[in-house]
Write a structure and sequence with these properties.
The chain is an alpha/beta fold and 118 residues long. It has helices at residues 2-20, 38-41, 69-79, 95-107, and strands at 47-51, 57-59, 62-64, 84-89, 112-115. It has one domain (29-115): Nucleotidyltransferase, domain 5. The chain has four helices and five strands; from the N terminus they run ααβββαβαβ.
Length: 118
């Protein structure tokens, strides 16, 4: 009987844990500070990756699709001396696109990745 009670309690806690679980990852990008400018954050030697709210990717001003991000990043890393990636993403940019950009940067050997707020 004691084992039955424990199993029932275990099932109840499992059901409650599933109902009370957090909804998932919530992203909240910082607001722009009016006292700072983007010029202080950007460097001309950075590999700049822009992502708009539709998920369109621009690397150093060149439009590319998700399948070509690795190739373009690898080529850009050979041209830029400091190998720093600056990601400028719209607040409504699809998060999956940002993750794929981070993966492509890692696979291209780029370890210094930062986010530029605007």
């Amino acid at each position: 009987p004691f084992t039955d009670v424990l199993l029932v309690l275990l099932i109840i806690f499992m059901i409650l844990a599933a109902l009370v679980a957090p909804p998932g990852f919530e992203k909240e990008l910082p607001n722009k500070n009016p006292n700072s400018s983007n010029q202080n954050q950007k460097n001309k030697n950075d590999i700049e990756v822009d992502v708009n709210n539709k998920g369109v990717i621009f690397i150093d001003g060149v439009k590319t699709d998700e399948s070509g991000v690795y190739r373009v990043m690898y080529d850009a890393s050979k041209k830029k001396p400091n190998h720093h990636v600056a990601i400028v993403a719209d607040a409504k940019a699809p998060y999956g696109v940002i993750i794929r950009i981070l993966d492509a940067a890692k696979n291209a050997g780029l370890q210094d990745v930062g986010f530029v707020t605007s």
